[in-house]
Specification:
This protein has one domain. By secondary structure, it is an alpha/beta fold. It is built from 1 helix and 7 strands, in the order αβββββββ. The radius of gyration is 17 Å and the shape is extended. Helix content is about 20%, strand content about 40%.
């Protein structure tokens, strides 16, 4: 009985971690992470659930909860799983 409960609990935990977001927030289809210790953000890898497609426009600043964040970085491998991405432009 304890073994079955452990297996079920572990399986549920692992499934939940697969569906957590890999980014802090999204605006206009672009994912962002807040850079620790700053008000700046980086463009984040959206993971497999919402890959970037078509054209991405990277703004100089992005607002979240009435606070402006300067976009200063792009996370490693952000655009690696983008099958239909045709261009990346800076606003």
């Amino acid at each position: 009985m304890k073994t079955n409960r452990f297996i079920i609990t572990t399986t549920l935990f692992l499934l939940c971690t697969l569906y957590t977001s890999a980014y802090d927030f999204m605006v206009d289809g672009v994912c962002y992470n807040i850079i620790t210790g700053t008000d700046n953000v980086e463009i984040a890898n959206p993971g497999y659930s919402t890959p970037y497609e078509s054209t991405i426009i990277i703004p100089a600043t992005v607002s979240r909860e009435n606070k402006a964040h300067q976009v200063t970085e792009i996370e490693d491998r952000t655009f690696s799983n983008t099958g239909n991405l045709t261009s990346i432009n800076r606003d």
